[in-house]
């Protein structure tokens, strides 16, 4: 459990053998020319969380350099803890440390940071270590809403889908004569019969007095 001090707006780690010890031991972060290996991450809660971020960055290739999201994740853990009692400051702090990133990259970081704070219990300094910790909802709540907003903006808009489909059909119609020329007579006729209802108006029987004034009966 990670313990929070009332006198200082930060967290102190009281027992190195607790299940949630301190920052990940990621030596490669000190050298930008090398990347961390799996053995560079401490076998602790924080270390395993950092390793998961690094591996996800490699797998998704959201970032050209997987060390960048790892560094941002590590910095944000500390920065957001400092404003955990002020939810309105969470997203401005997050945006400050993700300036210049794309929405997809911000979404990647936000999801990993939210997962960390959702699955990490924090205790107050002075409490017994066997007491149940708390989740910092002052951080997870704003991040959840922020992620939902990023996900909505990343969805394709209806207008964009319609324009894309129109372009696809336009290109296919240009190729239609060449495609029909490759078919034999039977298949070509069958295709034209199926296409006909979409091109020509459907003929329907209409009563002679429909739309006319009075009764012709």
* Total discrete domains: 2
On the 0-100 scale, what is the average pLDDT? 79
Radius of gyration: 30 Å
Q: What kind of assembly state do the chains in view correspond to?
A: single chain
General form: elongated
Strand content: under 5%
Number of strands: 3
Number of helices: 7
Along the chain, the helix and strand elements come as EEHHHHEHHH
Structural class: mainly alpha
Can you describe this structure?
The protein has 217 residues and is mainly alpha-helical. Strands 2-1-3 form a three-stranded mixed sheet, with no helix packed on it. Helix 2 runs antiparallel to helix 3. It is built from seven helices and three strands, in the order ββααααβααα. The protein folds into two domains: 153 residues, no CATH class; 42 residues, no CATH class. It is elongated.
What would the keywords be for this entry?
three-stranded mixed beta sheet; 2 domains; 217 residues; 4% strand; mainly alpha; 7 helices; single chain
Brief sketch in words of this structure:
This protein is mainly alpha-helical and 217 residues long. It contains 7 helices and 3 strands; from the N terminus they run ββααααβααα. The protein has 2 domains: 2-154, no CATH class; 158-199, no CATH class.
């Amino acid at each position: 459990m990670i313990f929070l001090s009332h006198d200082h707006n930060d967290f102190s780690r009281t027992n190195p053998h607790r299940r949630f010890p301190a920052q990940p031991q990621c030596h490669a972060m000190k050298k930008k020319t090398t990347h961390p290996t799996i053995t560079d991450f401490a076998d602790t809660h924080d270390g395993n969380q950092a390793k998961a971020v690094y591996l996800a960055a490699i797998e998704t290739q959201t970032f050209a350099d997987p060390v960048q999201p790892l560094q941002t994740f590590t910095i944000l853990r500390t920065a957001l803890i400092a404003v955990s009692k002020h939810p309105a400051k969470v997203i401005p702090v997050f945006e400050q440390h993700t300036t210049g990133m794309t929405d997809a990259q911000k979404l990647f970081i936000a999801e990993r940071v939210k997962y960390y704070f959702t699955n990490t219990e924090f205790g107050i300094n002075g409490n017994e270590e066997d007491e149940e910790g708390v989740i910092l909802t002052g951080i997870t709540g704003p991040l959840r809403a922020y992620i939902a907003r990023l996900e909505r903006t990343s969805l394709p808009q209806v207008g964009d889908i319609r324009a894309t489909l129109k372009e696809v059909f336009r290109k296919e119609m240009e190729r239609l004569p060449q495609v029909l020329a490759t078919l034999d007579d039977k298949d070509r006729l069958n295709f034209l019969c199926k296409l006909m209802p979409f091109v020509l108006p459907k003929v329907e029987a209409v009563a002679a007095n429909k739309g006319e004034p009075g009764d012709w009966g």
